[in-house]
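Batch manifest, entry 17 of 40.
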Amino acid sequence: DQSRTPASHLSCTLHAGGSLVTERQSPGSDWSGRFRLSALVSLSRQINERLSFLAVPAFSSNTNFWNPSSEGTFSLGLGGRILVHDDISLVGEWVPVLAGYKNVVDGW
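Output type: structure tokens
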């Protein structure tokens, strides 16, 4: 809890993961094109008791499953939280893709 420890101005967490797509791309496709790896860093800052911000730079490999030569994708998630009442918060996030595979719109 950043509000109780004034020396902690920023929280940082590293996330890493992997997945395997089980749907076949085409007959004879190898397993190497089905693996996806991802890594991201969550950076959060609690401004006061009611307001916090979050930035999440992320990288994912093989993000376009239908294209075997798909490169990795970099994104930067941005979010915030406002505590409205003791147990009620408004949370919002936006995840623009900076480089790599892009869908029609960014994630909200």
